[in-house]
Every structure is written in C-alpha cells, then in structure tokens.
Amino acid sequence: MGAVSVDLKGQVAVVTGSTSGIGAALAESLAENGANVVLNGLGDADEIEALRASIADKHGVEVRYHGADMRKPDEIADLIAFAEREFGRLDILVNNAGIQHVAPVEEFPTEKWDAILAINLSSAFHTTKAAVPVMKRQGRGRIVNIASAHGLIASPFKAAYVAAKHGVVGLTRTAALEVAEAGVTVNAICPGYVKTPLVENQIADTAKARGISEDEVVRDVMLAAQPTKKFVTYDELAGLLLYLVSDAGASANGAAYPVEGGWLAQ
C-alpha cells in the first residue's frame, strides 16, 4: 500500500476570504500542491496583487483574484462562474470568509448580526449552490467549509458567530447527503483558536467585553479552552484540507473535523 499522495495539478480551487490569515495560507497550500487558485477577499489592491503574484510565481500555477462581496449573492455566483470561465472547471471550493464581533446578546448590534450571518453562513450556501452543478457535471468535486470549534460548542458574547458556525456545520451535513452519489464531498474543518488578524482583533474586543487585560484573554479565555495551550497553526489546518481534497479523502463526507487541541474532549 503506497503513501498518500496529494497531486492537485490541473485542478482549480476557489478560496473565499483568502487575502489574509487562514484563507491565504490554505490557498497557498493548494497552489503548492499544483492547484490553480482563485483568491477572494478584502484588502489593499496592491497588497492583494502582490499576494496573487507571489503565490503564482513561487508555485508555478495560475492564480486569479475576484473581489466578490460575500454579502451579495449575485457577486458570489459570479465568483464561481468566473472560476469556470477562466479555467474551464472547478474542483475545490473552500468557504473560509468570516468576520467576528464580540458583545453581550442584549447589546449585540443588529447590523453586526446581519453581516456575520451573511458572510459566515449565507455566503457558503450561495457558493455551494453555484458550485454543485459544475462539480456534478465533472463527476468529482470537493467542498470544504471552514467552520470553527464554535460550530460545535458555544462561548459567551459571540451569539452571531456561534449561530453562524453551527449553521455552517448543518449546511455541510445536508449538502453532503445530497451530493454523496455524484462524486462530490462536503466537509467542515472546525479550528480552535488560530492567531489570525481576526483573533488579534478579538483579543482586544473580548478584553473590553469582560473587563480584563489582553494577556488574561489569551491565557484564561482563549487558550484555557485548548488543553495543548497552543494556538492551532496554519500548517495543521492545511494538512487536513489536503487530505479532504485528495483521492484518499473520497469517503470522508458530511463530517465536521475539530482541530482544537482537545477542547471538545473536555
């Protein structure tokens, strides 16, 4: 029995929210293994172009950028159509786009609730809706939703994020059942705390909400939940993603995989 090989040469991947943080790391990992990639996300135009060019040059693949707003279904549909127009196919969809806001439920701004639900949950529905017909025509596809440990467990002051990520897990399981005989799989990765720009901002917000210092947030709130007392790394998430999109992961379907240092074992 041979070793597991991840050769994505000729495959096409769309990664939402991939101009920084987890998304950028996952997009680069796919490119490193041969996939052509469509980046998506917010940021300075020059910085995005530099990232696009860097990934393409470093790994010898084609990399495009599409600036779809993850709150707008028409733009999301065009993102998927763009990938098919540019490359003639779509093999991998990684739904990673996400935002966060921390506040007590009675003080939670309605506009923040709406934005988090739109970007963290509804966008994954819209991309999946557009991608599934393409993947069915090909007879193969991989959809990986970046949920969260908060898709499986709750924490205070994160009503919208927890609700959205629980929804992502539910969407994952439902879509997986629908496409199971079409050669398409749908899975979710549920990271614990990763030291991303989003988490860096969350440290300050949580400190304010709880009335404690930022050091106490890291030690007593964030990493207190993770028995390893370590942030999850980008490489650890990329390793699981590569398994799920490879042929070796063909029977992994409809699952939500925790990568959180044992948080949920407690």
From TrEMBL:
Source superkingdom: Bacteria
One Gene Ontology molecular-function label: 3-hydroxybutyrate dehydrogenase activity
GO biological process, one term: monocarboxylic acid metabolic process
InterPro entries per UniProt: 3-OHbutyrate_DH (IPR011294), NAD(P)-bd_dom_sf (IPR036291), Sc_DH/Rdtase_CS (IPR020904), SDR (IPR050259), SDR_fam (IPR002347)
Family named by the database record: Belongs to the short-chain dehydrogenases/reductases (SDR) family.
Protein name: 3-hydroxybutyrate dehydrogenase
Organism field: Marinicauda salina
Top-level taxonomy: Bacteria, Pseudomonadati, Pseudomonadota, Alphaproteobacteria, Maricaulales
